[in-house]
């Protein structure tokens, strides 16, 4: 796909009106690392202008805006009056609720008893949830469309999400291995192709199976012991950054 220098070739509205947008971290994010991971690890390379490429980039754009823009009015990829995010059949979240909760918390919220929850959404904030996964996947968490089954206004698709487990996750040491999961989704759009509903269905166990594979990190391990353990398991030790 042809790209314009200095602009992200997979995400719209990243640099448009950037000065008037309220960004969560002061300015537009940079996706160079995760774009490289995506290009190195994707299983499909869709033709430019194809339905599959259009859907893939639309989801990347939506995720970028929800994760990095503070005000609903600045998010151009959705219909703010109608938007709902529904995950695994749970009650839908509005745009404002999704902005407050964050996409990681929205995707990982569940009704299991707390003792069986690997990740406790009620104990996380928007910021802490993103930090947990930035730490575990320092190169980013890439996403691709595997198949598209129908076109607008109700788009049905299959996706793959993956990253390289190079940093600690909730007391578990990194393995340096690829962690991935697959899922299905639908995207309902209006006549202007703005998103009204996103529905996602996937098995969180696929994600956590890879993240909990790392051995527990002892609270007594510090300094050189942490570095030695990481060096033995991965080339991307978070304690050396």
UniProtKB/TrEMBL annotation:
Q: Where are the transmembrane segments?
A: none
Q: Which PANTHER family match?
A: PATHOGENESIS-RELATED FAMILY PROTEIN
Signal peptide residues are none
What the entry lists under InterPro entries is as follows: NTF2-like_dom_sf, Pathogen-related_defense
Q: Which SUPFAM superfamilies match?
A: NTF2-like (SSF54427)
Protein name from the UniProt record: Pathogenesis-related family protein isoform 1
């Amino acid at each position: 796909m042809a790209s314009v220098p200095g602009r992200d070739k997979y995400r719209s509205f990243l640099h448009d009106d950037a000065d008037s947008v309220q960004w969560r971290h002061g300015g537009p994010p940079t996706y160079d690392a995760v774009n490289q991971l995506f290009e190195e690890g994707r299983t499909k390379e869709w033709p430019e202008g194809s339905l599959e490429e259009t859907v893939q980039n639309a989801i990347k754009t939506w995720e970028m805006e929800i994760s990095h823009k503070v005000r609903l009015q600045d998010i151009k990829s959705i219909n703010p009056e109608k938007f709902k995010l529904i995950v695994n059949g749970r009650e839908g979240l509005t745009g404002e609720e999704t902005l407050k909760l964050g996409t990681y918390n929205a995707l990982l919220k569940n009704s299991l008893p707390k003792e069986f929850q690997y990740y406790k959404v009620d104990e996380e904030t928007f910021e802490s949830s993103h930090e947990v996964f930035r730490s575990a996947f320092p190169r980013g968490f890439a996403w691709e469309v595997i198949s598209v089954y129908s076109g607008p206004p109700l788009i049905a698709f299959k996706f793959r999400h993956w990253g390289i487990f190079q940093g600690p996750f909730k007391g578990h040491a990194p393995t340096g291995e690829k962690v991935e999961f697959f899922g299905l989704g639908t995207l309902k759009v209006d006549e202007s192709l703005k998103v009204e509903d996103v529905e996602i269905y996937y098995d969180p166990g696929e994600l956590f199976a890879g993240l909990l594979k790392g051995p527990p990190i002892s609270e007594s391990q510090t300094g050189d012991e942490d570095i030695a353990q990481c060096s033995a398991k991965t080339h991307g030790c978070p304690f050396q950054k």
